[in-house]
Design a protein that fits this description.
Chain lengths: ~475, ~375
């Protein structure tokens, strides 16, 4: 506690406060939640740095003006009262400038928001109008996990025969999507959108902006549970897409219990067994990718994809089903699925010298993804397997239960080495490992960076290392 | 409870800087990666002073151009042999630390040559790698060849000279080399990393090469050059039961494998000696591979190596494939960890196994009786010295 207070008094503190606001995506609730957890304000900006934007620069200047203003008041007091009391008051004002900065910053922050709001409204209104007049078929993807992968699978497969575009990166907020809409030329045939959800109502707002014609719900789980407070709220929020698309085509991941339970008879379920009457057989997955066959009546498609993990057969077959229903040929589907590759930081294999394969799954931060990755390792034979993780965040009251389950699944998978990063959740993984009588080696590191730096010294040729999830600074 | 491992590096040697690399990549980093050890770096400067501070666990400390100046302001660490090895940091508040195992990472003179091993034997502390005798013999290329030849292991024909004889009668010594086929290699006997090794084709070149070699050493070896050859090397680990890494063929860019090509020409600088410029496993066929492995083990045992060593071979391609043992390195640069990695042994496993081997040898040695009760001193007064 003493350290927490003392470390506020350093010249980097104003920058730290602005960084925390930026890294919390300017969500004041998230910022405050983080602020009260920080134990040492000197070590906040570790994994990323403050990005220079107009907003962050304005807040940084404001932060310094707050500190300087307190200093000036203190100097004035000292000038008017040049005695010991004056000195004490002067020092007190200097300290107060730093001490109350984290709260006073709310004023310039609100000012920016007030100025920003009408501008944002105007931008999103323009985007909505553009989309309303756009002739393309609009497909929206929502879910607690797997949205980006689904968006990219659909984009790759559709693009074989139909002009398809989707926002880059993880543009899944009203402003991000509006920015993308500005780049449209008007001749696109399919528009794909990923819908981001943080709070109830988010999906409904995005649906009003996009006005989708079809939808995909990739699943519901405990991701962001800390913000939603209950799985019912998470489910309801994600199913705002299905509500909006009443009477229209919606695909739902049947492997997600919560999504399946909420699905209506008119919805199309997809699982690793098949989709909409199409059956999946002969599925296998290794470091080279995933191979499977789908068949319906006379139609038999032997498909291969660069994506890793049997859990991908569901989304891949769903993509095949959807694009087939929209006119893509069988040959186009085979070609398109073959072109699907692991996406950046999502079960992305990288061959490390000498002969060590690293599977980068650092953007995977949900229980379903964790289980799927462990499942993949379980069936990977002929390698010594390492599994490195800092665990999951934002899963609220389920934290203990889910992490213990991860530990048990790891132990049962036969993974040889588990590397855990010391934090508030990995102890539960260790408990799970112990409970399931884990036979391999358990290694601990103080932080992710030192674990990554040690990997070249822990591995040898023929090893496979799966790196699962990466915690941003605000969870450390 | 974590064991305390002291890694000793630097030293009064031409391979001082290489030793710093070996100590950090892979030894210290691998030891830290295991999470099993407290790692204490001990740096011996070029003038023989001993220093130790935590910051030395990072190689960046030594990349600082002014690190030697910085060291002059540091307190030297002292050694205490008190039922083992203790480090003492002098000052108002004296700090001491007991060392459980020493990991020598010193190449060349005063380190790899057995000097450091002698000191550690005196201290009574387990240490990684070959013991004093094997280190001293392997450091002397002439002793190595003489022992191997006596054990029936093929070595290239050679002669050797001492500096004093060279200074007395050059022509007589040059004559001694006349039976060797030209070209020949001239090598300082006690230096590693191919320092001052020269290939001589003519008498003039031989004389110059000897001059260069005697500049670095008191004892010089002249041996036939095996032309049309394949050089291979084999890292070995173990005390009694041996584990072999991959047979490695350095694909050197220069006419022979000199200091620069060993340590500076690698495509993957910093990842270890020869990384990126070697063929592993060497494509020499099953028969030759088997012979190299057999000779490697025989050599390792003949010299009494323990812990780890690297045996270098010359394979003459014509007229018929013949394998010669060239030399033995008791502390291979960077422990040849790139090769062990290829053989499926990670850096962390390598250092851990070497520590276990060191402890095994130490506990075995402790069972040996070195002293016994004697009444010779009591009897001394009773004797009359005969004149």
């Amino acid at each position: 506690m003493k350290k927490r207070q003392l470390t506020k008094f350093n010249l980097c503190y104003p920058r730290t406060i602005v960084y925390m606001l930026q890294a919390s995506e300017y969500k004041f609730r998230d910022y405050l939640y983080w602020y009260f957890r920080v134990e040492d304000f000197r070590n906040v900006e570790c994994r990323k740095r403050l990005q220079r934007t107009t907003k962050s620069l304005f807040l940084l200047i404001s932060a310094w003006l707050i500190v300087i203003s307190f200093g000036m008041v203190g100097t004035f007091v000292l000038y008017t009262r040049p005695d010991i009391y004056g000195v004490v008051l002067f020092l007190l004002f200097i300290l107060c400038g730093f001490y109350f900065l984290a709260y006073i910053i709310i004023l310039p922050f609100l000012m920016v928001n007030i100025l920003q709001y009408p501008i944002e409204m105007w931008i999103t209104r323009n985007a909505r109008q553009t989309l309303e007049n756009h002739k393309a078929l609009k497909i929206a993807v929502a879910g607690s996990f797997g949205k980006t992968t689904m968006r990219e699978i659909l984009k790759t497969v559709f693009s074989e025969e139909i002009k398809t575009v989707a926002p880059p990166f993880s543009y899944n907020t009203p402003l991000g999507i509006s920015k993308f809409v500005k780049s449209l030329k008007g001749d696109e045939e399919i528009l794909l959108f990923e819908l981001g959800e943080h709070y109830p109502g988010d999906i409904k707002r995005l649906c009003r902006l996009i006005q989708p014609d079809m939808g995909v719900i990739t699943g519901v789980n405990e991701a962001h549970l800390e913000k939603f407070k209950s799985l019912e709220k998470t489910t309801a929020t994600i199913f705002e897409l299905a509500d909006y698309l009443k009477g229209k085509t919606v695909y739902i991941n049947g492997e997600s219990d919560l999504a399946r339970q909420k699905a209506l008879p008119e919805h199309i379920l997809y699982t690793r067994q098949g989709v909409g009457g199409w059956k999946i057989t002969h599925a296998k997955s290794d470091l080279s990718g995933t191979h499977f066959t789908i068949r319906k009546g006379d139609i038999i498609l032997n498909l291969e994809s660069g994506l890793l993990g049997l859990h991908q057969t569901g989304p891949l077959s769903m993509a095949a089903h959807m694009v087939f229903s929209l006119g893509v040929t069988e040959e186009g589907i085979v070609r398109g699925i073959k072109k699907t590759k692991p996406f950046s930081h999502r079960m992305e294999p990288k061959v490390e010298s000498p002969g060590v394969t690293l599977i980068d799954d650092s953007y995977n931060g949900n229980p379903f993804g964790f289980y799927a990755a462990i499942d993949f390792l379980m069936y990977l034979t002929g390698y010594r397997r390492f599994y490195l993780t800092p665990g999951l965040v934002e899963i609220g009251e389920k934290t203990k239960e889910i992490h213990e389950e991860i530990g048990q699944k790891l132990a049962n998978s036969g993974v040889e080495k588990v590397i855990l990063i010391k934090n508030s959740v990995t102890g539960y993984i260790a408990n799970g490992l112990k409970r399931a009588n884990f036979k391999g080696d358990l290694l601990w590191f103080d932080d992710a960076l030192s674990a990554f730096e040690s990997l070249p010294y822990l591995t040898a040729e023929g090893d496979v290392v799966l790196i699962q999830n990466d915690w941003p600074d605000r969870y450390n | 409870m974590k064991k305390t491992v002291a890694v000793i590096f630097g030293g009064r040697s031409g391979e001082h800087d290489v030793s710093i690399i070996t100590a950090h990549i892979p030894i210290i980093r691998s030891l830290l990666a295991t999470g099993e050890y407290n790692v204490v770096p001990i740096y011996i400067s070029k003038d023989g002073s001993w220093f130790s501070e935590n910051a030395m666990n990072k190689i960046e400390y030594f990349k600082d151009e002014n690190y030697e100046d910085k060291l002059t302001r540091n307190k030297k660490v002292r050694l205490l042999f008190d039922g083992g090895l203790k480090l003492i940091w002098p000052g108002i508040k004296i700090k001491s630390l007991s060392i459980d195992v020493v990991f020598p990472a010193m190449h060349g003179t005063f380190g790899e040559d057995g000097s450091l091993m002698g000191l550690l034997r005196m201290a009574g502390v387990p240490f990684v790698g070959c013991d004093l005798h094997a280190s001293a013999v392997a450091m002397d290329k002439v002793f190595t060849k003489q022992i191997l030849a006596a054990e029936g292991i093929s070595v290239v024909p050679f002669v050797w000279f001492e500096k004093s004889s060279w200074e007395k009668d050059r022509s007589a010594l040059l004559k001694k080399t006349s039976h060797l086929k030209r070209p020949v290699f001239v090598k300082p006997v006690h230096l590693g990393s191919s320092i001052a090794v020269t290939k001589a084709k003519t008498e003039k070149e031989l004389e110059n090469a000897l001059e260069v070699a005697f500049h670095y050493d008191e004892k010089v070896l002249v041996e036939e050059s095996v032309e049309d050859l394949i050089e291979v090397t084999l890292p070995i680990m173990g005390n009694e039961k041996l584990q072999l890494a991959c047979i490695e063929r350095p694909l050197n860019k220069t006419e022979f494998f000199d200091f620069d090509s060993k340590y500076l020409s690698g495509e993957e600088k910093g990842s270890g000696v020869n990384a990126g410029i070697s063929e592993m496993p060497a494509n020499i066929g099953e028969d030759l591979s088997r012979e190299v492995k057999t000779l490697g083990k025989k050599t390792y045992y003949a010299l009494g190596c323990t812990g780890t060593a690297r045996v270098d071979f010359l394979i003459e391609k014509k007229p018929s494939a013949k394998v010669y043992v060239n030399e033995v390195n008791t502390l291979p640069g960077s422990l040849y960890h790139h090769n062990w990695k290829k053989a499926g042994v990670s850096g962390a496993e390598l250092v851990t196994r070497l520590i276990i081997l060191a402890e095994e040898r130490f506990s075995k040695e402790r069972k040996t009786t070195y002293t016994f009760e004697s009444d010779v001193l009591k009897k001394l007064n009773g004797f009359k010295i005969k004149e």
